[in-house]
Amino acid sequence: MADVKFEDVARRVYVRSVEAGRSPVSWSAGRMLYMMVLALGAATDRSLVVVEVGTGYGFSTLWLARALRELNRGRLYSFDPCQECVKEAARALAEAGLMDYVELIPSRLEDSLDKLPHVIDVVFLDAKKENYGLYLRLLKPRLRPGSIVMAHNVIAPSPHKLSDFLEEISKPEWVAVITQVDYAGLSISLYRPQK
Question: Which of the four CATH numbers 3.40.50.150, 3.90.950.10, 3.40.50.880, 3.40.1110.10 does domain 4-191 have?
Fold first, then answer.
């Protein structure tokens, strides 16, 4: 059954993001994020910890939080140093009834790692592309076997900026796929550390 309130809020946030030049994920990519969190949640009884780096105006945040609400468990920690963006996202999440599942952190990830739990289940990267490798290095020690890392803009506009990230997810401890659910591309990587 369609969640009309969610879809109305998400559409407005998407349009606002595009108009502001924020380059949100596509609607299809948003649904992919939602589906991946739902799938991981269905495979476990534990409360999921989801980390988003790059809140923007909250379009992808809405999709991730919606999955947690449907699971009725888990917490999303979303980082963005842009104060205006965090305020916009907070308004949208409140309107969609999702704030109970989200902690918005108006800071860069690298400055606020202490805000995170020690174990992470899902990561979504959509911030400075040249920092994807750094974000993954910072978060990797907190990943458990079976954690999922997703990243936007792995195909366009500047994949060379995230070459260290792409090199990392090509290693044997990752099972990675890159899909073109929008023009920019989305990578989905399963963390499977070698014994």
Answer: 3.40.50.150
